[in-house]
Amino acid sequence: MHIQDILAANPTTFSFEFFPPKTPETAESLYQTIRELEAYLPHFVSVTYGAGGSTRELTHDLVVRIQGTTKLNPIPHLTCVCHSEEEIAGILQRYAGNAVGNILALGGDPPRKDGYRKEDDRFQHAVDLVKFIRRFNDSGAHPDRRGFGVGVAGFPEGHPATPNRLKEMDHLKEKVDAGADYIVTQLFFDNRDFLDFRDRCELAGIHAPIIAGIMPITSASGLRRMADLAGGARFPAKLLRALQRCQDDAEAVARVGIHYASEQCHDLLENEVRGIHFYTLNRSDATRQIFASLGIQNSRFAEAPAM
Ligand SMILES: Cc1cc2nc3c(=O)[nH]c(=O)nc-3n(C[C@H](O)[C@H](O)[C@H](O)COP(=O)(O)OP(=O)(O)OC[C@H]3O[C@@H](n4cnc5c(N)ncnc54)[C@H](O)[C@@H]3O)c2cc1C
Question: For this structure, is 57 an active site residue?
Fold first, then answer.
């Protein structure tokens, strides 16, 4: 389903993010997670795209499998990194052929391999990819006459590559003006950062719906990995203090991390967030506990009659 239709029908969306599994065993375990989370009727699920190599094909495979075997609406991520125009056109063609409705267009993390030169990429920034997808849409190659719906990334705490926050907003606006339908944010742990970002977008004339990215911390090692992956992410003292109190109790860390993320979600809903996107790390337990804490049986509660 086109993201414009999803957003028009739902004042608040709920969505889950997965990464493509590398082995047949992890593929089956992910599929179990997907089945468990399907019961929550998410408005869409998204599948990340690797920095290069064979995992990229796995994104396509997983998206097509979800599309073909579940009622879920899969959105593939696609990045500029290490791609020519012909390759991107081929990928779009394949997704269009499978009636995949939307794409999340990203700059992409650089590969950790020797010899990579960003200047060799045909598309230098996500905005170039958004424009290319729009041109593809105009060609009429997609079964939906509007073509792919397009999402882009936003960074409430700022993107490390652009320390000038005013310029960064200009770059985000370029992506939206080029035709992005919605924005999904990087994870954040202080809602004030998200709410301020939303205000700043409004002031900059960026009116696309902004979906908040939430990642519950479930382990001390996960916290470290996250700090590395989401470079520049701020970890508030309140969160760190709560985690410190857990000492070496792994279960307590997970409980505290999930409780913290639940509180963030409660507050975002109070502040009429347009959507919450859960970075699931391919597991369902944390997300299920957050839904339970929010009292949400499934994502379509907003369609239910008011009490
Ligand atoms: C929701 C979400 C999902 C993600 N999924 C993936 C994934 O699946 N695979 C992956 O590899 N990475 C993923 N990432 C990480 C992302 O690709 C990187 O953080 C990347 O560095 C930024 O992506 P972007 O789309 O914002 O890129 P861009 O919009 O290209 O921005 C990258 C940097 O360049 C600057 N910039 C943008 N346009 C211009 C311009 N015209 N001139 C000069 N500077 C400019 C921006 O300010 C920013 O600092 C994801 C991030 C988010 C938030």
Answer: no
162 lines ligand 1 (CB under 6 A): yes
Q: What is the pLDDT of residue 236?
A: 96
pLDDT tens, residue by residue, 159-188: 999 999 999 999 999 999 999 999 999 999
- Helix, strand, coil abundance in the chain, percent, nearest 5: 50, 15, 40
Of 17, 157, 168, 174, the active-site residue reads 17
- Inform me whether the pLDDT recorded for 112 exceeds 90: no
**What is the structure's pLDDT at 155?**
97
Give the chain's domains with CATH numbers: 3-294 (3.20.20.220)
Atom of ligand 1 nearest to the CA of 187: 53
Specify the residue for token string 């779009």: 92
Residue range 229-257, pLDDT digits in tens:
888 899 999 999 999 999 999 999 999 99
Q: Is the beta carbon of 212 within 6 A of some atom in ligand 1? A: no
User: Which residues 6+ apart lie within 8 Å of 74 measured at CB?
Assistant: 44, 45, 46, 47, 62, 63, 66, 67, 100
Residue with tokens 């996960």: 222
Contact 88, 60 (CB under 8 A): no
Q: Which residue's CA is minimally distant from atom 22 of ligand 1? A: 107
Helix (H), strand (E) at residue 70:
none
Residue 302 Cα to ligand 1 middle (Å)? 31
DSSP lists the bridge partners of residue 119 as none
Residue ID of nearest Cα to ligand 1 atom 10: 108
Distance (Å, whole) CA 121 – CA 113: 15
Is pLDDT at 201 greater than 70 in this prediction? yes
What is the phi/psi pair of residue 99, to 5°?
A: 60, 30
